[in-house]
Please model this.
Amino acid sequence: MTELKHMKWWGWGVEGVAFHHEDKPNFAPFVYQKLGLDLSGSADTPPTFDEIDAPASSASEELLTALRTIVGEGQVVTEDLDRVVHTYGKSLRDLLMVRANLLPRIPDVIVYPSNELEVQKVLAFAVAEDAVVIPFGGGSNIVGSLTPYAGESRIIISLDMGRLRRVLGIDEDSGLARIEAGVLGPDMEEQLNQRGWTMGHFPDSFTHSSLGGWVATRSSGMQSDKYGDIADITRGLRMARPDGVVELHALPSTSTGPSVREMILGSEGRLGVITEVTVNVHRIPEQREIQAYLFPSFNAGVEAMRLIAESDASPSITRVSDANETAFTFATQKESKGIGGKVQVGLFKVLEKRGWDMERVALSFIGYEGSPSHVKYQKSIVGKIVRSQGGIGIGSGPGKLYDQKKFDTPYIRDFLLDRGACADVSETAAPWSKLPQLHANVVAAANEAYDRLGITPGWIMCHLSHSYHSGACLYFTFAYVSKSDDSISEYDGVKSTIQQAFIDNGATLSHHHGVGLEHAPWMEGDISKGGVELIQGLFEFADPKHVLNPRKVTGK
Amino acid sequence: MTELKHMKWWGWGVEGVAFHHEDKPNFAPFVYQKLGLDLSGSADTPPTFDEIDAPASSASEELLTALRTIVGEGQVVTEDLDRVVHTYGKSLRDLLMVRANLLPRIPDVIVYPSNELEVQKVLAFAVAEDAVVIPFGGGSNIVGSLTPYAGESRIIISLDMGRLRRVLGIDEDSGLARIEAGVLGPDMEEQLNQRGWTMGHFPDSFTHSSLGGWVATRSSGMQSDKYGDIADITRGLRMARPDGVVELHALPSTSTGPSVREMILGSEGRLGVITEVTVNVHRIPEQREIQAYLFPSFNAGVEAMRLIAESDASPSITRVSDANETAFTFATQKESKGIGGKVQVGLFKVLEKRGWDMERVALSFIGYEGSPSHVKYQKSIVGKIVRSQGGIGIGSGPGKLYDQKKFDTPYIRDFLLDRGACADVSETAAPWSKLPQLHANVVAAANEAYDRLGITPGWIMCHLSHSYHSGACLYFTFAYVSKSDDSISEYDGVKSTIQQAFIDNGATLSHHHGVGLEHAPWMEGDISKGGVELIQGLFEFADPKHVLNPRKVTGK
Model:
């Protein structure tokens, strides 16, 4: 038996942790108004695992014995629960599937290697046996990167990287840390923090996602404006392949032809399995604060973020919510704290008197890090820009709350799902000039999808989550009470409409969630037919038998 | 006939521009002392083109007619001078070859397309005819990326991109410009400057290198600390292939699998021909200045650059020269200006009294850009760090001189070559922790090579040219008076010793010059056998007939 803990098979996070709204008086009325969902009723109980009918493993005793020879006796698992946990990530679609006992194809066996050589041997074995290998980190993926192809007839091995979890060394002069790829976010940061360092990478999935997973799907974190996306943070890496290991030593920059580093980033297991990553790490900053601001409209907030990107300031977080998300944030605050309660009421009255339309107000968070004088300098530049767009600062209180609760959103999603409401996310990036139209058109497209599917009311909200010189990421969250017996097709209808709106408006299919199976249909629309061909050509060379997480990214 | 102007066939730059030292009294004594070269004698006259015996073109009239149908009557050239100009870049090796009439294989025909469709048709034609295509931008390459394989038996077409030179549009909200790939640096910046914008990319080759060439070889510029390497600046691009066009629309960041953008960056023509690039552009900064500093040693200067990279400051240029390069810089100053003359003598006396060893002094330039208050803020952070390493500021005078003369170094190289001295450059990058040992070991390796080859004295000098969070670029310049009848083998002996020292010391084979033919032997040592295999696999898919600039990057 492995000692590793996995997430709930039926939802996000660990057993015993859940969202509750008893101390948030505005939440139930808000959900009723926006989704038509009455929270006073009782929740569906998630199915017990007894009700799940997992297909039997097809792994022969001979195959299992061979795998045990590689990774050790207790590290080869065929139990149903483990195989079901390794079948899906944690998108809404994944939860709908698993809760409905829809398991068309699940892994036949899970292996838990403890080092790179064992990983490499498993891959060589898979090629020899014509078995499929799907690497698994924290299991938080939401684009189908972990899900076996339903029609797969070969043996499927899920390769769980959780035992490769050590920070192997820190080069303190260079700000580089060599880290095993299977480590989960909190474990890694704890090891770094103990020595005074941080990687500064905090995706929403942080508590249940792995370093290797971040690299394999091109992750971004909340403070990526300062620390960079994982593609910037990753300076060197090692990737096991069936016939050996690709080794890229850590470099600040290099000119060695097409970037192998950038081929492995985003490869989602199709080139091999990332075993070790050398990453940029930073001294824990002297000061760190998140200030909140309000803007009279989302577009005013976006324009402020654009001006900040153009300015001499370089904050660690730039975030602004549209009117819907701002309203949602207010509704999920406790009465006694932050801007959810009486303080908000008073503030809103003042702003209304100033002529603000409070239905359009946009909440923004901006993060600052560095020496106290640097934080002060940055805040002064940002303050001027905020005012130039009609915005006002409302202090650091809301930011502290945001910082504490930032990893909890998936629990709200599961809470709603237990009560019949579907919620999921879709994010993208585009140049600044396209963002206002993109936002309007995606919202319109989602509402058209709701109408088409007979979903009334449906909900969509958005925030700008990362800023760059030339553009930003828009992160949409959508929710509705399912009206169909076929909730999977209904979900696919909403999600694919939003994805298509991204492509139709010159935005990308994903800024930081990856491609997997779910986004593969939009690859040609995003990077052109010729671009997909180059990726597929690389995959065909690297894996002619299609045993390495087949069909992910390109669909082929 | 094409209207395009090319560089001298026998050296850098345009006819009529050359280095002279009459107003630099310390230059001749310095060269005599360091290289044993007496500049009072007369120079070799470069050969006239009459002496060059260019192999005849093998292009048939039928083939030329077909190419004329694609690009137009006057845009297909087979004249000897044009074909020789398109045979080599401008490395020392290239000049030794061409001046010695060593032309084992030269292009059979030059074509000058005017748009992407013509480029694409030339590529399709080349595949159909099994002819080789070598793309050509400004012709400044110094790693053999332009040179045909000597044993090539097929027709060779040099595809000169110089007519694709327009800035097609600026998205002013996003800071993005769409630009044709054949444009040379000064032409491009002039078009951008007219509208108040700059790309901020100024490689040493700027005056004679093209946008497409920068992308195809992963170029860096002098202000890359602020504006990013070309890989960061490039947000979208179009690449013609024999069967169509790869189109990547401009995005600030994306999560679409292995990065096709980063496959095309550095591909040196092996995947297709870059026709258009969408790049980050910036408003011309309000203030711009370069401050000079002196450090008691190179390692003290490097440590200061490391601390600046770790600090809250973000200068546009970080540069520090070792003792040899500092002495060279002083020797090339005019008497009346900067720190080359009387001012230096006085300053050095003061520093000697403070206990400095003036044989070890290291000159540094740091560039600042932004609002006046931002420049002031940055300078104050940097000033503290400089002082912490024992350094002193010496004002903005030397920086102004450096800024004016920064593109002139290749003319000095040609001046020396006319007088029998060989000089060339080799640059690399490594983590901060490795830089002091790397510097010492590369210098030692070069000196060992000089000894082995009977070169006494030989010269090598270095500057740190670009800083990153985790490391920096070290840029070496080496020079010697040739002692061998076989000056090519002699040069290869020195250059390859330096390259091997890079790899042996954990540095990369090149930070920003690319791979070409010259650096290909070190690819496996740099990115591992498995890494080279992935690149070659991609090339094999993209170009199964090996007609697209064959053998570049991987040597295969």
